Amino acid sequence: MIKTADPRTLGVPSAEARLHFDTELQELGGGPRRRLLMVDDEPAFELSFYCGTCPLLFRRLETAREKLSLADLQERLSGSLDDPDDGGVIDAFGALLPEGEYLPLLLSVEPRLIVPGKEGDYFSDEQVTSWGVDQFWGLPEYPHTPYYRTFETAVDADAHLYEFVVPMVPPTWNERERVEEYVACMEQGTVPTAVAVSTLDVCRPSVGFGDDPSAHWGLTHFLLDGHHKLEAAAAAGRPVRLLSLLTLGESLAGADDLARLPALRAQSRSARATGT
């Protein structure tokens, strides 16, 4: 944690926002409605289900094809922000979002690129430990995208915070030359800034299919700007700054949980000790 600002109202009416949250319409005889992150009126990600006992989820959908970078801010974000309000960045990106209350968080992250099903995959490891595998498929949840792990820490003996940065499009879509340029700059000490809209979903298993039925606090940052920066930082083992605009109204967390987040994010990193 570098700095947090006071919660503020940002955004435009949902119908005018490039990004917004939605609930899938119920089809006659269909299953539960999906909670969705929409980009340009197309479903981009399926998110954790509303019940609070289902596993944490960010699943990329076939229509997730767009980034939301702002060309006018590229130069400003090529270096470090020292304050969430520097250079009007919050208001500029806020204009892409649906009207609501947001908590700005300025973080330092050291991303680690994760490929689902391989080493370090939250869905195959920590989530299975708490929920077990999907009871229908007999497999772990699958997010359909590589993602970055950046931080985790204890909430209490029965809960743990896990942080993720999720690209709107996979790193394989990034321009190799731009990634290499950022790697070179980072190796010379530059710390660029990425921007994300974020959710905090608190999920607790209700049935004992797993070995460690603890609550998972999923802090998930969906990248608006910084796809090349995050890949470069992961490749170079370097930090980047991340300006997170945490939605208070669309997170699956209570007001007390959201209020605790800045202090939790300022704690030292610690892994979950299974079975504690």
Keywords:
276 residues; alpha+beta; four-stranded antiparallel beta sheet; 5 helices; 31% strand
Overview of this protein structure:
It is built from five helices and 13 strands. The longest helix has 12 residues, at 176-187. The mean pLDDT is 93. The chain is globular, with a radius of gyration of 18 Å. With 276 residues, it is α+β, with helices and mostly antiparallel strands. A hairpin with a 2-residue loop joins strand 9 (147-156) and strand 10 (159-166). It has helices at 89-94, 126-131, 176-187, 227-236, 255-265; strands spanning 3-4, 8-10, 19-23, 35-39, 42-47, 58-60, 100-109, 112-114, 147-156, 159-166, 193-203, 215-225, 240-247. Strands 1, 2, 7, 8, 9, 10, 11, 12 and 13 form a nine-stranded mixed β-sheet that branches.
Short description:
The protein is built from 5 helices and 13 strands. By secondary structure, it is α+β, with helices and mostly antiparallel strands.
Question: Any chance you could write out the topology, listing elements then pairs?
Answer:
Elements: E1 3-4, E2 8-10, E3 19-23, E4 35-39, E5 42-47, E6 58-60, H1 89-94, E7 100-109, E8 112-114, H2 126-131, E9 147-156, E10 159-166, H3 176-187, E11 193-203, E12 215-225, H4 227-236, E13 240-247, H5 255-265
Helix pairs in contact: 3-4
